[in-house]
Amino acid sequence: MYVEQLFTGCLAEMAYYIESNGEAAIIDPLRETTPYTDIANRRGAKIKYVFLTHFHADFVSGHLDLAKQTGATIVFGPNATTEFEIHSGKDGEEFQLGDIKLRLLHTPGHTMESSSYLLVDAAGETPYVFTGDALFIGDVGRPDLAVKSDLTEADLAGHLFDSLRNKLMVLPDETIVYPAHGAGSACGKNMSKETYDTLGHQKETNYALRANMTKEEFIKEVTTGLVAPPQYFPKNVGMNKGVNKSYDNILKDANRPLTVAEFKQIRESENALVMDVRHHHNFIKEHIKGSLFFGLDGGFAPWVGTLIEDLNTPILLVVPEGREEEAITRLSRVGYDNVKGFLNGGIKAWEQAGEEVDALMNMTPQEFAESITNHNVDILDVRKESEFYSEHIVNDKVVNSCLDRIMTGYKNLDKDKEYYVHCAGGYRSVIAISILKNLGFKGLVNVDEGFAGIKKCENIQTSAYVCPTTML
C-alpha cells in the first residue's frame, strides 16, 4: 500500500494518490493531470478511480480529463448531480483497490453531497480517512457554500454536527485525518498549518470536536465569524458540475508568445486585461500602463478569483521567462481559461518597441514613518479587518479598506487625496494600487515591506484596539 499527499501551496489544497497492488485512486485532483499520471507511470500502476469528496468551490477539478486519459471511474457521494457520467456512491459502499478498500462515508454539512473516504487495509484496519472539507486540522468546513440550496447555514451546520459525531469521531483515535485543505484556504476559518493529524489529537484540540458540545453550540460556533466567500466560488462549483475545456487545449491555446504588435492588437480588439505576474518589486519599477498586478510569488490564483469577476475575461500575460506555463496552469485551476498569450521578451521588448511604461510611487518604511510624523497624511490599510483589529497604526487618518472588497470599497475613498497604501508585507498593496490607478486614483504611494516593515520603525505607534478610523 502506498499513499502520497500532494500539497499545492497557492490554494492550500491537498490531493491524494493511493495505490495497492498495481491499482491506484486519486482523491480531489487539480485541473492538470500530469502530477497524478506521472506517479502512476513511475510506479507502474493503473488509475482505477477518481474520487471527489464534494463539488469544490475554490478550484476547478481535473476529474474529467483524468478519467478520459486513464479510463478511471469518477465517484461522487450521494446527492451529486452532474452533466457527465459518474458513479453515484452510497453511504458505506466499498471500492476495491488492489488489496485494500476505500469505504465511502457520507458526511454532509459543508455541502450535501460531501463525503469522506475511509481506507480499509487488507487486515481490516482503518489507518487513514480522507475527509475532504468535512473535517480539517483545527477546523471544519464552512456551512455556507452550498449553491442554490434550500437549506440555511444553520441547517447545513446541523448536518455537519451529525456527520462528525456519527461518521468520523467514532473511528479509532489512531486513524490519520487527511483533509482537502490547510491554513490559507477560504473553505474554513481556523485551519492549522499542519496537513494531517490523528483523529484522537483532533478530538483534544479541534474546537468543533469537543465531546460535551451541543448541536446548538456547534451551529453557533461554526456560523459565527464567517466572511463572504470569494466571488468565484459558486462559479467554480458550476464548472465542477459541468463539462469544461480540457486542460491540454487550454495550455495549447494560451501558451503563445506574442510580439508587441500582436499583444497590442489583441488588447485593443478584445479589450483584454493585461496581467503582470512578475515580482511586485519589478512591477513597482516599471510596467505596462493600465496593467494589473497579480504576482505568481504570492497568493496568485485566489486573488485573481476574488477580484476579476468575469471568468471569461480575455487575459494577456506579462510573465517572467520560463514561468509561462505555470501562470496559465494556475489561472486555469480557478476557472480563468481565456488567456490569449504572453508578451514575448516581456517588459524589455515593450520598452524597446518605444511603448509607454509606468511605475508606482514607493517608499521605505522609515520614509513612511518620517512622513506621518511630520505631515498630516492619509493612510490606506488594505489588510483584512481581522488583521487590522489585531494591530494597526494609531492614527486618525487611517482607513481600512480590505483588498477583498476593494472593487466596492473604493467608492468611499477620495480620488483627489494622496494615500499611503500598505498591507502586511508589500504584496497586496501593489495589487490594490494597480486596481485603484485603473479606477482613476492618482496620488497612491506604496509602503514597501508593509506593516511588517512599519512595525520596526521606533516612532510608529501601533495598537490592538480600534482607533477612530474608518472601515470600508
TrEMBL record:
Among PROSITE patterns, the record links this protein to: RHODANESE_3 (PS50206)
InterPro entries according to UniProt = Metallo-B-lactamas, Mito_Persulfide_Diox, POD-like_MBL-fold, Rhodanese-like_dom, Rhodanese-like_dom_sf, RibonucZ/Hydroxyglut_hydro
The biological processes this protein is annotated with in GO are:
glutathione metabolic process; hydrogen sulfide metabolic process
Ranges for domain Rhodanese come to 268-359, 373-459
Keyword line: Hydrolase, Metal-binding
One GO molecular-function entry: hydrolase activity
Keyword Metal-binding carried by entry = yes
Q: Which domain of life is it from?
A: Bacteria
According to UniProt, the name of this protein is MBL fold metallo-hydrolase
Give the originating organism.
Answer: Vicingus serpentipes
Which taxonomic lineage does the organism of this UniProt entry have? Bacteria, Pseudomonadati, Bacteroidota, Flavobacteriia, Flavobacteriales
